[in-house]
Fold this protein.
Amino acid sequence: MSVKVKCLNPIAECGLEMLPEQYEITDDYESAQAVLVRSAVMHDMELPDSLLAVARAGAGVNNIPLEKCAEKGIVVFNTPGANANGVKELTIAAMLLAARDIVGGVEWCEANKSDPDIAKTAEGAKKQFAGTEIKGKKLGIIGLGAIGVIVANAANRLGMDVYGCDPYISIENAVNMTRDVTMVKTNEELYDICDYITIHVPLLDSTKGMLNKEAFDRMKDGVVILNFSRDTLVNEDDIREALQSGKVGRYFVDFPTPTTVNLPNTTVTPHLGASTQESEDNCAKMAVREMRDFIENGNIRNSVNYPNTDAGICQTVGRITILHKNLPKMLTQFTNVFSKDDINIENMWNKSKGNFAYSILDVCSPITDQVIADLKAIPEVIRVRAVKR
Ligand code: MLT
């Protein structure tokens, strides 16, 4: 059976080339089993019954209705880290642009290009573009995920004094981060001391508007704010006021909105963080790998609405996967179904994430239609799929 994949945005060719012949790129969203997406907003889209997986080639998932997908048994993946280097490089570039008026200097040369004495005039004019160095300045990083950690390492190598705050930092990210970073317990500790503050957290109800008046009031006068994560992490009215008063010296934001493009002392880029060939290729390849591992083996890696569950490649006669509610007695109900049909369960994995859970069962005899029907009949079960039978 062919697996239909709908691309809601252009996806890098090197990723699509990783789809073997049983996959087919389709224009027909209504019958697709998988969706590959970058920035297309899916909140108002119907979710077809055929749809098993949505893989986002990127980190942010605020364009996808995660809960609605989970309720419908659609696993949503993202690609954390795949575009981190692109975002890191732009963050570092923004700090250098904030420290020195490089853009003003370039514009001056352009405006004076017909001056035959430009070499001499430039020596007089250049003082208006002089700035500072980032070496020795204090950088505060809010969020030490894949991006925050490599921003920390790069800034440390450039001689900055780096402070980081992330109560949920993963072991992997902590291990990858230079020990020279000073960890603080609260964002407020960063606000008090840092010259540059960069934000690398996802947009959630709990993070929306987190840089607000209260935060700006605690910061050093003239602080530089960098936002390469999502526009609404920063309260737009409050940052306008802080920019007008000089409390915030400069704002770099990668999200043009009717408000951000009209803020004073602000440099806006058109969501360029991950717009590099390398990032687009990495994201496409990772999204396709995750999607294929789920379709072909039932494994979940880097999902944002179901628990990560890795059962490897099935070595037994059959494998059945069950997306279900995270409630008591689920496993008892599943095993009862198999014992009724005298099917031996060789291996079993069960993981939960919030209200949802996932079970993979490898069995020693062929999976019958009756077993599938009985599992589907359990009220708390959302979707049953025989990956191998
Ligand atoms: C991300 O969420 O990965 C970045 O903002 C880039 C993108 O949206 O593609």
The chain has a mean pLDDT of 97. The two ends are 14 Å apart (CA to CA).
